[in-house]
Write a structure and sequence with these properties.
Blueprint: E1 2-13, E2 17-20, E3 23-26, E4 30-31, H1 39-51, H2 57-60, H3 73-86, E5 89-99, H4 109-120, E6 127-132, H5 138-141, E7 145-156
Parallel strand pairs: 5-6
Antiparallel strand pairs: 1-4, 1-7, 2-3, 5-7
Helix pairs in contact: 1-3
Length: about 160
């Protein structure tokens, strides 16, 4: 078994939606980011990479490369998971916490779970996603951005 953790933050800027867990969520702002800014998937990528000591998302997909400009983060996640599988590991489960004062997340979590489970080839009940506010405290509470923490547990695939 291997354990990994990931954390990502993006500030709000101009836009009319944000991407989280592959889901387009209407909002009066967007994320300032090189890619689509999906903080949940970025933190998940970092957790997966970290579990196997393979660096972080910035090393694999540098924001200095035009190849990743505005890229769908689900593409990045699928690529990272292929690296995990090449090392002989699979996802046992993940757990995550989205910290966002706005927009509200509850009605989007089921679809996020479906997308992530599909991209990783696991059952939906292996994809834990929770959301919380910060009660008006800090940059999240001031509605300046969103932060996400993710933990993963990987197991060695004996059939690989």
């Amino acid at each position: 078994m291997r354990i990994g953790c990931g954390y990502d933050v993006h500030a709000f800027g101009e836009g009319d939606h944000i991407m989280l867990g592959g889901v387009k969520i209407p909002h009066d702002q967007g994320f300032i980011a090189h890619s689509d800014g999906d903080v949940l998937l970025h933190a998940l990528c970092d957790a997966l990479l970290g579990a196997l000591a393979m660096g972080d998302i910035g090393q694999h997909f540098p924001d200095t490369s035009s190849d990743y400009e505005n890229i769908d983060s689900r593409i990045l996640l699928r690529h990272v998971y292929e690296l995990v599988k090449e090392k002989g590991y699979r996802l046992q489960n993940m757990d995550s916490v989205i910290s966002a004062q706005a927009p509200k997340m509850a009605k989007h979590i089921g679809l996020m779970q479906e997308y992530i489970a599909g991209d990783l080839g696991v059952e939906k009940d292996r994809v834990g996603i929770k959301a919380t506010t910060t009660e008006g405290l800090g940059f999240v509470g001031l509605k300046q951005g969103v932060a996400v923490n993710v933990s993963v547990l990987l197991y060695k695939d004996q059939s690989a």
